[in-house]
Amino acid sequence: MRRVLVTGALGQIGSEIVPVLREKYGCENVVASDIRLMPGAGGEEPFELIDCTQHDQLQEVVRRLDIGTIYHLAALLSAVAEQKPHVAWDLNMSGLYGVLEVARRYRCKVFFPSSIGAFGPSTPRDQTPQVTIQRPTTMYGLTKVAGELLCDYYFQRFGVDTRSLRLPGIISFVAPPGGGTTDYAVDIFYQAIRYHHYTCFLRADTQLDMMYMPDMVRAVLELMEADGSKLINRNSYNVTAMNFTPDELAAEIRKHDPSFVIDYDPDPVRQGIADTWPRSIDDSAAQDEWNWQPRYDLASMTEDMLAKLRQKLRTVR
Ligand code: SER
Is there an atom of ligand 1 within 6 Å of 172 CB? Predict the structure, then answer.
């Protein structure tokens, strides 16, 4: 088989999707890449240093290793993109453009993660439809909308098999997320286990869509394996598993740890971003076109996160 390349492999999503892809396609067939060196790289697991804004680096690896599919996960998340809008534009846009160009030349299939950040203040905020107004006001959001359109362009114009998900906040315990607005829903678990206390950077009533990592990994793989002829909204699908507020998540954690306390100190930047995003999204197109169904809800995700993270942090309670 032609090999698989994952960019941003050391990030929150990459660190969990690479092992699953290796299990599925064979370790030697899945090349992890990042801008920094993977700890322990040089063993049997293929790893390449790639700065996605350097298109020649990307092309060299795709050609040399006969890459047939690219999971393009290298990007800045929403809050850090607001701090560094120029870097975000360069990495999120130029990185994707380079990936699509290489994919066109070498006939690769491409996965691109879009986001609930691709919506904005003029989007309907409840049960946000699949096709709706997308006028985000963040640099992150506008790179995601432009990314969706660029992926569609490469599909329609050049026949590149591009596929994409509008991901909600992703909750996981392996690698921490970096600089996202939804990251509170990960931080809260670390702080709950360590200190039984969390100061949240979003207001108590900020409702956002979320998904537990195992569901997200399955969503990506199922989309990539779906029959292409059935994908009407291929760039990009609304997907969700649950939506809740910080207050509701804290109440769920308290069922396992009655001493857990949450207080609030909203960060104007991240609160400002969250206030422009949907409170809930409608993912019926994903359900209809490739049978998307989440398995984890708030209760089962919280139970599993606490158990796995306690194990990871070696906290005996
Ligand atoms: N989790 C992302 C963020 O908060 C949303 O796509 O930036």
Answer: no
pLDDT at 288: 97
Name the more confident of 314 and 189.
189
What distances in angstroms separate CA 193 from CA 177, 180, 254, 257, 306, one per listed residue?
A: 18, 21, 11, 9, 8
Active-site annotation holder among 71, 97, 106, 140: 140
Q: What residues pair up with 187 in beta bridges, in sequence order?
A: none
User: Which range is least confidently modeled, 113-127, 141-155, 173-187, 238-252?
Assistant: 173-187
Kindly indicate the confidence band of residue 44, based on its pLDDT and cuts at 50, 70 and 90. confident
Q: What is the CATH number of domain 3-169+212-238?
A: 3.40.50.720
Domain boundaries, the chain: 3-169+212-238, 171-209+242-281+296-316
How far is CA 250 from each of CA 114, 261, 280, 306, rounded to the nearest angstrom?
27, 8, 19, 12
For ligand 1, the distance from its centroid to the CA atom of residue 44, given in whole angstroms, is: 32
- Whose Cα sits closest to atom 6 in ligand 1? 115
Q: Is the dihedral of CA 235, 169, 108, 148 positive or negative?
A: positive
pLDDT band at 56 (very low <50, low <70, confident <90, very high): very high
Which CATH class, in words, describes the domain spanning 171-209+242-281+296-316?
alpha beta
pLDDT in tens, 60-109: 999 999 999 999 999 999 999 999 999 999 999 999 999 999 999 999 99
C-alpha span between 99 and 59 (Å, rounded): 8
Catalytic status, residue 106: no
Can you tell me the mean pLDDT for 47-57?
A: 95
Q: Is the CB of 167 under 6 A from ligand 1?
A: yes
For residue 201 the two structure tokens come to 């950077």
